[in-house]
Amino acid sequence: HWGQMLWIGALGGLICLAYRLTGQPGVGLLPHRARTLFRAYLDADLVVATPGGYLYSTRGRAFPFLSVIFPLLFAVLAGKPLYCMPQSYGPFRFTWEKHLVRWLLSRARLVMTREPESLPALMDAGLPKAHLTPLVDIAFAFQGAPLAEVARWMKTNITGEGPHLGITVLNWERQSHSFDEQERYETAVAAASRSFIEQHHGRVWFFPQCSGPTPDEDDRLVARRIAGRLSDLPESVTVFDEVLPPALLQGIYGQMDLFMGTRMHSNIFALTAGVPVLAIGYLHKTRGIMTALGLADWMVDISQAQPEALVERLEQLWQARLLVRAAIVTAVPPVVAQARQAGRLIAVDYAHLRAEKPA
């Protein structure tokens, strides 16, 4: 709601500035929930922007952009050290967005990027390269569930002979107003799934990497539509409706023979488990991460996911799976080590900052 966001944004900004001048948390004019939020800002010693890919233009719609700028802006206005963990940035289509990003991020203590393509986007916005810290997505450091727990789940839920193809999908048309080929994308995923089943007597498993908070972000709705196109193969196609813990998902993905993921973090989970992945990219973050691993050949842009092309690419990955698995085993461990640096970098910088402050 534009009015509510702008009112709380303006009032919250004034409260943060007043706090810097007076040291008093004058939050009494705010609604209760906003009051709790701003007290947390003012009481904080530092503010960390968690990882993601949320600072980019949204086809002329300023609301989503501003809604994620404000939480960072309040930290700066309150005089709190701001740290941005590895994220994807850009593209920025409008000059005002670039100005705002430059003003805001130039005041952050650390700005970490998670793939190479974010660097030129931020430099184009006016941030010097020296101010940016290239890392990788910290999901590479995520630990999956113990093998015994994964094995128990697999024994109950994964049936039939392999090979097994794990899949994640999303409703990109509902999340990006510049994409109007959702049906073609779903047709392509269905065609690739059918080919895998028929050519290799395989089984296809659709996993819900995301399940909300709104139907637009619920992967299960898309998975059911695609499975409906494969209704003549009911024994070979399964859509999991249960929302599974991330640690268990990572372990299950590691038991697949092949993975075709649109959700980027599902691809990262599969890759860290050594599974060959065909990634369907919907933002530049996917291309950047696959390129950083030397696996750019196994990425298909969602705008180019034609049925015939996706069928062919998935088959090529299957034929090359042993070589690709060997490449993953070599490429992933250094990336995992790099992912673990993000927290340490923040800790070291904040310790220096505290040491510099007068007693």
DSSP, total strands: 11
Strand order of the largest sheet: 8-7-6-9-10-11
Distance between the termini: 44 Å
Which consecutive residue ranges, at least 5 long each, have pLDDT under 50?
A: none
SSE layout:
Elements: H1 2-22, H2 32-43, E1 47-49, E2 52-55, H3 62-77, E3 82-89, H4 95-105, E4 110-113, H5 118-124, E5 132-134, H6 147-157, E6 164-168, H7 172-175, H8 182-200, E7 203-206, H9 219-228, E8 237-239, H10 246-253, E9 258-261, H11 264-272, E10 277-281, H12 284-292, E11 299-301, H13 307-319, H14 321-339, H15 341-356
Parallel strand pairs: 1-3, 2-3, 3-4, 4-5, 6-7, 6-9, 7-8, 9-10, 10-11
Helix pairs in contact: 1-3, 8-9, 8-13, 10-11
Describe the structure.
It contains 15 helices and eleven strands. With 359 residues, it is of the alpha/beta class. α1 (2-22) packs parallel to α3.
Descriptors for this entry?
single chain; 359 residues; alpha/beta; six-stranded parallel β-sheet; five-stranded parallel β-sheet; 15 helices; 11 strands; 52% helix
Gist?
The protein is an alpha/beta fold and 359 residues long. It is 52% helix and 13% strand.
